[in-house]
Write a structure and sequence with these properties.
The protein has 5 helices and 26 strands. With 385 residues, the chain is mainly beta. Strands 1, 3, 6, 7, 8, 9 and 11 form a 7-stranded antiparallel β-sheet that branches. The longest helix has 18 residues. It is globular and about 65 Å long. The protein starts with a helix and ends with a strand.
Length: 385
């Protein structure tokens, strides 16, 4: 009897131990991974597409994943247009400029910095990213210069790309289904009025993950940072206020008080650029934000009432320009959706005059801190299946 009890105890311990194993990704593909890649050294890049890689899976392989991209050369390579054509696409699902793919706006040349997904390793160029781009049969990667550069001759390019056959794609500890595909949704130079909402990315049907978001904004002051992020799921159920993702823009990027700690390049989020042409105005807005957050509810309501009663007719427009860019990576902080989604941001935000709270007032409140018109560029990377 004692022997039977001991045997049962050992069996239960073994089963529980199996379930308590490390949750890190396992090599569960039946075929060994095989690396492939290509590059160009001291090549010439102009307006026509230059093929960096054209690869079809080998006969025994089940799938492929692009794992690495790097570029340098002439300074214009920072804004070269990189395209990934997946499985015979005529219109690429992935098209980016290297600096924005790394979350850096406004030609910011800070270096070196990096995380496990992307970064910049040199003062001149050296942009890299490890963003996973899965495919089923064939992948083609090209580069070309935007015609807005207006150059009459090819410019020097050094670049290489790399991938792996039979490598499953993980976002954090979540393994993407074999049918998952990457998609980059871009907004470029969109003009926004104070308090205007913008849908940064959306999909009407299907399942997936929001993986990476890059925001680049130019505005008259820093008040646009009051804007709250939210997501609606499913797509057909866009009932206000959706699911709140942050209580302000810098909050979404894991900072606070208008990024008062300055430039950062953290693993999950970072501020890659922030500069106002009027430094005094930048400091004013940061200090005003700190003062406001320390006020009582009654003090906040009183201040908002006073501002709401002010006339804006003779107000002098802001002469400052504030440029901000930041990134947020959702590999640990997973944002999943089913039956579609809509990912939304607002240029500044509105406070309820009765409660002093923001993020939950769509109309009829007070726009905070004299927010101005803004110009937005954003990259939102998603995986869908």
């Amino acid at each position: 009897m004692k022997t039977l009890s001991l045997l049962l105890l050992c069996t239960v311990s073994f089963v529980l131990g199996a379930f308590a194993q490390d949750e890190s990704p396992q090599n569960d593909f039946p075929i060994n991974p095989v690396t492939f890649g290509n590059g160009v050294s001291d090549g010439g890049l102009h307006y026509d597409e230059l093929t960096l890689l054209d690869h079809s899976l080998s006969i025994l392989s089940m799938s492929g994943t692009m794992t690495h991209f790097w570029i340098s050369g002439d300074p214009a390579m920072d804004v070269a247009v990189i395209r990934y054509y997946v499985d015979g696409e005529l219109i690429p699902s992935i098209e980016f400029q290297p600096y924005l793919a790394c979350g850096a706006g406004f030609d910011d040349q800070t270096a070196p910095w990096g995380n496990s997904w992307f970064g910049k390793g040199a003062r001149g160029g050296g942009w890299y990213n490890n963003i996973r781009i899965p495919f089923g049969k064939h992948i083609k990667v090209t580069a070309h210069l935007p015609r807005s550069l207006n150059v009459s001759y090819p410019l020097a390019i050094f670049s290489y790309v790399r991938g792996v056959e039979n490598l499953p794609t993980y976002i954090g500890n979540y393994r993407l289904p074999n049918a998952a595909r990457a998609k980059l949704i871009k907004i470029e130079n969109l003009f926004l009025t104070p308090g205007q909402f913008v849908t940064l990315a959306s999909q009407k049907t299907g399942q997936g993950l929001v993986f990476l978001h890059v925001l680049s904004v130019s505005s008259g002051n820093l008040a646009f940072l009051e804007g709250c992020y939210r997501i609606y799921m499913p797509y057909d159920n866009q009932v206000w206020p959706g699911t709140l993702l942050s209580t302000g823009t810098e909050d979404y990027f894991d900072s606070a008080y208008y990024f008062d700690a300055g430039i950062s390049h953290m693993e999950a989020a970072g501020l890659t650029h922030m500069r106002c042409t009027n430094d005094d105005e930048q400091h004013y807005f940061i200090n005003r934000k700190k003062r406001y957050t320390r006020q009582t509810k009654e003090e906040k309501i009183k201040e908002q009432m006073n501002e709401a009663n002010k006339s804006n007719v003779n107000k002098t427009p802001s002469r400052s320009v504030c440029n901000v860019s930041a990134y947020k990576i959702h590999d640990k902080d997973i944002i999943g959706f089913r039956d579609g989604f809509a990912f939304e941001w607002r240029n500044g935000d509105m406070a309820d005059l009765r409660t002093g709270q923001k993020c939950f007032t769509k109309t009829g409140g007070k726009l905070l801190y004299d927010v101005t018109n803004s110009t937005l560029t954003s990259y939102t990377w998603i995986y869908t299946w």
